[in-house]
Amino acid sequence: MQPAPIKPEITFDDFAKLDIRVGTITDVNEVAKSDKLMKLTVDFGDHTRSILAGIKQERDNPKEIEGKQALFVVNLPERKMAGELSQGMLFDIGYEDKLQPCLACPENDIPNGARAG
């Protein structure tokens, strides 16, 4: 693999605006009107969110990520896609480099809602 060029420099203040948190994926369901999206139900400790992720074609069995902790961006505006509402974004690794994507996740169990950074 040839790594992609590094994106333009940002300020620390720009980075600090991102709210990235650990959540446990409790349920993974198909989105009827989409060939790519799956609906993840994610437990963030004090609340649960629905997050749409384009993982349907990336994995033989998208439900295999149920029960796993992963990182999510939680302060993006809610967005409607394929008739469903997404309340954040899954942080995964590999897709942009055309690799088999994998979850960005903590190495140990950590409380849901813990912040990255």
From TrEMBL:
Q: Which UniProt keywords apply?
A: RNA-binding, tRNA-binding
Task: Write down the InterPro entries for this protein, in alphabetical order.
Answer: NA-bd_OB-fold, tRNA-bd_dom, Tyrosine-tRNA_ligase_regulator
What Gene3D superfamilies does the record tag this protein with? Answer: Nucleic acid-binding proteins (2.40.50.140)
Q: Which GO terms describe its molecular function?
A: tRNA binding
Q: Which residues form the TRNA-binding domain?
A: 14-117
The answer, when asked if Cytoplasm is one of the entry's keywords, is no
Q: Which domain of life is it from?
A: Bacteria
Q: Which SUPFAM superfamilies does the record match to this protein?
A: Nucleic acid-binding proteins
User: What PANTHER family does this protein's entry cite?
Assistant: TRNA-AMINOACYLATION COFACTOR ARC1 FAMILY MEMBER, TRNA-BINDING DOMAIN-CONTAINING PROTEIN
Q: What is this protein's name?
A: tRNA-binding domain-containing protein
Origin organism lineage: Bacteria, Pseudomonadati, Pseudomonadota, Gammaproteobacteria, Vibrionales
